Predict the 3D structure of the following.
Amino acid sequence: MSSRSDTKFLLGESDMPPAWYNILADLPEPMSPPLHPGTGQPAGPDDLAPLFPMELILQEVSTDRYIDIPQEVQEVYKLWRPTPLYRAHRLEKLLDTPAKIFYKYEGTSPAGSHKPNTAVAQAYYNKMAGINRLTTETGAGQWGSALAMSAAFFDLEVKVFMVRVSYEQKPYRRALMEAWGATCIPSPSNETEAGRRILQQEPDSRGSLGIAISEAVEEAVTRDDTHYALGSVLNHVMLHQTVIGQEAQKQFELADTYPDVIFGCVGGGSNFGGLVLPLVKDRIAGKDLRIVAVEPTACPTLTRGSFVYDFGDTAQTTPLMKMHTLGHTFMPAGIHAGGLRYHGMSPIVSHLYEHNLIDAIALPQTAIFEGAIQFARSEGIVPAPESAHAVRAAIDEALRCKEAGEEKTILFGLSGHGNFDMAAYQEYFAGNLIDHEHPQDDIDRALAQLPAMGD
Amino acid sequence: MSSRSDTKFLLGESDMPPAWYNILADLPEPMSPPLHPGTGQPAGPDDLAPLFPMELILQEVSTDRYIDIPQEVQEVYKLWRPTPLYRAHRLEKLLDTPAKIFYKYEGTSPAGSHKPNTAVAQAYYNKMAGINRLTTETGAGQWGSALAMSAAFFDLEVKVFMVRVSYEQKPYRRALMEAWGATCIPSPSNETEAGRRILQQEPDSRGSLGIAISEAVEEAVTRDDTHYALGSVLNHVMLHQTVIGQEAQKQFELADTYPDVIFGCVGGGSNFGGLVLPLVKDRIAGKDLRIVAVEPTACPTLTRGSFVYDFGDTAQTTPLMKMHTLGHTFMPAGIHAGGLRYHGMSPIVSHLYEHNLIDAIALPQTAIFEGAIQFARSEGIVPAPESAHAVRAAIDEALRCKEAGEEKTILFGLSGHGNFDMAAYQEYFAGNLIDHEHPQDDIDRALAQLPAMGD
């Protein structure tokens, strides 16, 4: 039995959701289709076949409301799921707020974040399709670690192209991927044409997620035994992450309350989508609920980007997606929340934003770390810099509630711990962090390079 | 409802043990008392008062079977307790063993190990006694992190003397302690007389737990506002850790089985003691159960040390304790399981070993890491090098069961994750690990320096 004074609202393994929730079944307006990068015509399943197994391609376009989670995937989920929903009693006390603060913590996975929720599924479907080798990109390393671990469970080889700035800032992330048997190299690399082209233009390139995706996609397309796995953005990734929000709904029933406002950090959108999509369903059905995506001011995809067709990668090899974007040539500043340094945004999240079903805000990194430290010293967990965006937004909201005397229920997604991000905390304590804000020209220039597509 | 096919056996917050279990109430033979380092006479509460609050001193000598856990401590425990008991289905499959393998995982605490179980209690009792500042030592950093976090919860300052070899191998452990507000310096340091003396004799000293304890104790004794906190060895530390074993007992009821053999790694003995003491009670009561302490061959306190009176620290400032020891001047090799590099052993664990209530084995570090990788690639969690001693012992036992066709139930303590130990894994993969085994002369020489006390 749970009671309202509980710290954690726990579910048993038998309470795990048996299916992923697909928001496409409930959208008031349909989404724009992805387009083939060559022809500009809607991309079909065959266009994606060199990259993904057919099961994932079908999930990408499915409009079924629920898609069963295979038993083999559920068995792996049980290594850390269901994850706890916490009531932040100690943080509330520190802030002296009448608000109730809850957080859903995904850092209990051995890889330390929400990323394995989709990595396990992708590894499974690739294995079932007879694939033995995967390539991918990683920013901060959360996704690369998750795929490395998940691939180990299904006996697949993995090669990870890691954004160079993160590769250098986080040497132990690489060791973690290697512990699970993956190979990890800094991107841009000399191992692909896309990488070599970038290095020719800019030998000191610090890399970006867009470049690393180009490299990983290129290797997958040019090798028959190899597929590609993406850790965010795509519909099937959002789908797999919905276990988070579905569990949270059950846990709020145990807590006998329901959120008034939800915060999640957004890079490509998978943590945010996973947490909020099942609750967006409630909002579409009429529930009074504010849902806020929190992004870094250094990469303000939702708050300052455009909703247009763009490539997912720098080398223009992926299908064009209608999404919020800063332009695929945009180079975000080298902030410590490496997982949020992506020029684009999940088409689903972009669509929801465009239709006013969610809001977005942008925060600078020193404020993020300030909030992270307050959180660590009251709740214990040291957050990943990405997750700290949601922490800070929740703290700000709780302080607004204090001022207004409002007893709101706040939920935020704590997508991962910061155990592999301590170099960033060192920089913060040393006073070395810079709050990057790109001049409008940077963004306009990158957007001006986009192809004109029927939007 | 749990079922035998579950991966995790979970308890709710209301199932948490309300009291710590004190093995002193159930020992068949009484333990030898600690002796005053100056007089050689039994040490009384007053002798310990400069170091510890009276509540902890009373717990150190109590023979009450159960001691209530204060509500404030329980509230903090709820941030990560009860911890899961896992059935290692995937590891069993990998080993193709008829044995059932279970592990109790303490790495879900924000500090990543079992250490906060006592750190929280110690911070609480010190705060209640009006103390505002604590000193301590740390080897691998697990204990220092745990105390830093726990002190933050009760608004205490902390200064950590970190064994220099670990300080250098694990820069991010230091950043973690700082994130929780603690100060961390390498030991031996110039800030204490004990440290300066060592540095004079050996300017390049890599340090040891024994030296770091001397430094931390010296600073606590010489400052009125400061107490000392020890992360292992002492009776009250073992006491606080018994939440682990008590939870495990309840979880084995859910799993509808009971262990035939238990493995835990031992440095000072607190993880091992915490897991096994409640089950030693069952063994004393007649249960057929083998309990095995696993130590490194590089610091073979139980398997090659003597059961005699010795100091807890290098500078001979602590009370003399009757325990298994390699001698307080013994300098263990610089292995990666820094938390196990201690010359002595919990008097309780030593007493149990001497009375054949537990067994002990020693393992070399390359075998440890080999087992850790097998575990990580099947169960996900990358173990701390300390915990990996128990992992390897359990794997070996499961393989013996396979050979003999025995369906034993194996339990081991997975005391923490290895997120801050990836440099050690890098060294392992690079083939740089050395299996240290001290010549008998090293041990004999250190033991010959011990004072002759009535043993």
